[in-house]
Design a protein that fits this description.
By secondary structure, the chain is an alpha+beta fold. 28% of the residues lie in helices and 21% in strands.
């Protein structure tokens, strides 16, 4: 599980400057005033009505962020907005898409 200091708070109204699009998600990112990077995931009921499925997708993305935290630029807020096409993808395919999006957005070190 990702530590609390690396999670993006829901209450914080943030304007993200940059966006990178993928077939399975949109990645929005911007600078923050902290020393750590923070991550958030938005997944609506339109993706799947069952909370179990939505939580599984959210855990998969947060686990990717947790394991690669040392390779991600610091002082960045990153928000994933999930699209319905993610349900047909396996975990390895999702991780490759995230890696490509991070390289495209120049968030990896």
């Amino acid at each position: 599980m990702l530590s609390k200091k690396h999670r993006l708070p829901i209450q914080e109204k943030k304007v993200f400057i940059y966006a990178t699009h993928s077939p399975i998600f949109t990645l929005k990112h911007g600078k923050n005033q902290l020393q750590e990077s923070r991550f958030g995931v938005i997944i609506s009921k339109r993706i799947d009505k069952r909370a179990v499925v939505r939580n599984k997708i959210k855990r998969m993305i947060m686990e990717y962020a947790r394991t690669r935290l040392d390779r991600i630029k610091t002082s960045t807020d990153i928000l994933f907005i999930i699209k319905p096409a993610i349900k047909e993808k396996k975990q390895e395919e999702v991780e490759k898409e995230i890696e490509c999006a991070f390289l495209k957005a120049k968030l990896s070190i």
